[in-house]
Design brief:
It contains nine helices and two strands; from the N terminus they run H-H-H-E-E-H-H-H-H-H-H. With 243 residues, the chain is mainly α. A two-stranded antiparallel ribbon has the order 1-2. Helix 4 runs antiparallel to helix 9. The radius of gyration is 20 Å and the shape is globular. 25% of the residues are buried.
Length: 243
């Protein structure tokens, strides 16, 4: 007799995927397309359009849209259906300040509980991020492949900082807020942007070193300043390009 515990699992050998797997796939792909700007803010998300793009049925797509709505990346209105959530400086700052609240607490806990493996992971992700940033320094334009690599390494670094907070909820909230702020930050990274005196690699290094020194208040203050500087740059970009 077939084990009933296997009924909800993917059966790829037979070419069948469980609904949970398809919903997760729909969520991941749609979330990525929203964050990277494939779908513009305010754009309707018609189920037929999504079905054709992703090759998935309506049920997992609806589940993905509902999940993304709880993450504030998708909006819905009666009789109008789903659309990509609008962007504004107010929303951007709200996401930034909430992210600061969540990650400050997570960083405090990680510094308290962090061990050698925690430090090693931070060093590794910092080095990987720095290498990719250096490769892109002299580029006239930024390719999507380069940008994707940079963003993945940037997320890994900030995730490593809070990895030892011992709270899955804090980490999940941090991930959600990272996505909310990422969709604002990505447009400022494409093409040539005005030169600034900001040393982002230096900011990352200072946060890392304060965390390793177990100087909690300084590490949190540096993280806070880092995020607010980024949001100030985004606000200037939005004023220039989205007015």
């Amino acid at each position: 007799m077939r084990n009933t515990l296997e009924l909800g699992k993917s059966t790829e050998a037979g070419g069948v995927k469980a609904p949970e797997t398809l919903a997760a796939l729909a969520y991941q792909r749609l979330r990525q397309d929203i964050i990277t700007g494939v779908f513009a803010p305010g754009q309707p998300l018609r189920l037929e359009l999504l079905r054709q793009r992703y090759g998935l049925s309506f049920s997992p797509l609806r589940e993905a849209l509902n999940r993304l709505q709880t993450e504030r990346l998708v909006a819905s209105a009666a009789l109008r259906g789903f659309s990509v959530a609008a962007v504004s400086t107010e929303e951007m700052w709200d996401a930034t300040e909430t992210r600061i609240l969540i990650e400050s607490e997570a960083l405090r806990r990680s510094i308290e509980y962090g061990d050698d493996d925690w430090e090693a992971r931070i060093v590794s992700t910092f080095h990987s991020l720095d290498l990719q940033a250096r490769r892109m320094t002299n580029s006239e334009t930024v390719s999507m492949e380069e940008l994707s690599a940079l963003e993945a390494r940037h997320k890994d670094f900030h995730g490593a900082l809070i990895a030892k907070c011992r709270s899955r909820r804090l980490i999940d909230l941090a991930d959600q807020l990272y996505a909310e702020t990422q969709r604002y930050r990505l447009p400022t990274l494409t093409g040539k942007t005005p030169a600034t005196s900001r040393n982002i690699a230096g900011e990352h290094r200072q946060i890392m070193e304060a965390a390793f020194a177990r100087n909690t208040d300084e590490a949190v203050a540096l993280l806070t300043a880092h995020y607010r500087r980024t949001s100030e740059s985004i606000e200037r970009f939005m004023a220039e390009h989205m007015s």
